[in-house]
Amino acid sequence: MLPVRIIPCLDVRDGRVVKGVRFRGLEDQGDPAALALAYEEQGADEVVVLDVTATPEGRGTRLDTVAAVRARLSVPVTVGGGIGGIEDAAALLEAGADKVAVNTAALRRPALLTDLAARFGSQCVVVSLDALGRWGVVGHGDPGARVVGRPDGTVALDSGYEVVVLSGTRPVARDAVAWAREAVERGAGEILLTSIDRDGTRSGYELTLLGAVRSAVQVPIVASGGADSPEHMADAVRAGADAVLAASIFHQGNWTVEEVKGALAGLGVAVRPGYSYAVGRAREHVAGGRGGCAP
Amino acid sequence: MTPRRPAVTVVRTSTANLASVMTGFARLGCRVRATDDARDVAAAERLVLPGVGAFAAAQRAIASHGLEDALRERIERGRPTLGICLGMQLMATCSEEAPGVAGLCVFDGVVGSYESGDEGWRVPQMGWNLVTPDARCEIVPRGYAYFANSYRLSAAPAGWLPVWCEYAGRFLAAVERGPVVGCQFHPELSGDYGKALLTRWLEA
């Protein structure tokens, strides 16, 4: 396996980084390009930029935000939010994205993933999957029912997790693991797997969901939603994540990326060491702890 | 006297992540421009053939602009040229990704796929991996570089210095022949490691 990638996530609205809890109550966290650069300097392996209000408001991701982040960053940038078709993706790549994350549009028209992979290659196509646990809240009081009632019928969810689109606002009565499998078959080269139940709650990643998707697909999985500590990240890696995404803990300065990497190394999880041009070889990581400086 | 800023020309294929490559060189103080004109490809002081896309689509874009001869010629003459990711693969004979489509055939080699399904080896390879250059390499340093690829070359072509990497077996991370370099990884996305590599290439 490669060193686990540590990925700060910038949820962007109107050109500013915001963060909420379970996709709601968004609060301002700063300028995207400045935050992204601070994270790269701390050792971030990649940055994800999500325009969290693009699809619900029916517009594409703001290209100027992507261009501003790109101009400063020399690590990969994945951009998602409001990608409706292949030309939206092309415009984002032209503006400076390295990968595009597709969510709602891919569920509406799964062949979009195939079209994107044919033009840009699978390594460029990320399917962003927001999942909601349906254990205990579905059926008729039976925690194991895994069935969702809908006005137009009842749908079985084999995994117990339902796909939700439009930035977490609309459940679509689709099994999350089955959709992950189909998305990969159609051309997605990576899965950005977000647990809505855990998003912003800092209660740890949804390991059951992660394990279920891991056993269904061979492409890399980015775990998202619920990170509060390097221990949570180590748990996610053991459950099958190739990369761990976090927002709140970095934006609010609880941990720097460098501290997280130091702690992960101490937990036996391989991370990418820093690089010094002057020395021309890897620097050692210093184990970090809580209480780091805000970027 | 300030040194002249190096001029870098980037080949525009409709599929590539042009902005990442162009801003990467701009941050190093270069004058950067994109082109799909064969005359520019031939005349460029330093040329980059970038690299996100599918083999067939990129090769088609190169052929439709009539760039094949200009690319081949400058590489054969040893003029500074950097192929990135797919840009390196396009220098080879052909790829399993696109049966029947010929590459630029600058060196002999068939681009193959990773063996999928082995425990722990995801395909695509997505992330940072340690690359180890041949002792005679002058441009590609040892260090962690960022990869995003499903296909790779596994044998070193004759006359080129190899840079090796491990992922479900040994594969070719890069090749060097003077100032002509092909990288399977993305130096423009490889942070300080990538800046070190690009700086050396600009000085080569």
What does this structure look like?
The complex is a heterodimer of chains A (295) and B (204). With 295 residues, chain A is an alpha/beta fold. Helix content of chain A is 30%, strand content 27%. In chain A, strand 13 (221-224), helix 8 (230-238) and strand 14 form a beta-alpha-beta unit. With 204 residues, chain B is of the alpha/beta class. Chain B is 25% helix and 29% strand. Chain B contains 6 helices and 12 strands. In chain B, strands 2-1-3-4-12-11-10-7-8 form a 9-stranded mixed β-sheet. In chain B, strands 5-6-9 form a 3-stranded mixed β-sheet, with no helix packed on it. The longest helix of chain B is centred in the last third of the chain and has 13 residues, at 191-203. Chain B starts with 6 loop residues before the first strand and ends with a helix. The mean pLDDT of chain B is 92. The chains are: A alpha/beta (295), B alpha/beta (204). Chains A and B meet through helix 2, helix 3, helix 5, strand 15 and strand 16 of A and helix 1, strand 7, strand 8 and helix 6 of B.
Task: Supply the number of helical segments of chain B.
Answer: 6
Pick out the low-confidence regions of chain A.
Answer: 136-145, 278-295
The residue ranges of chain B in which pLDDT falls below 50 over 5 or more consecutive positions are none
Largest interface: A-B, 46 and 47 residues
The ordered H/E elements of chain B are EHEHEHHEHEEEEEEEEH
End-to-end separation of chain A: 30 Å
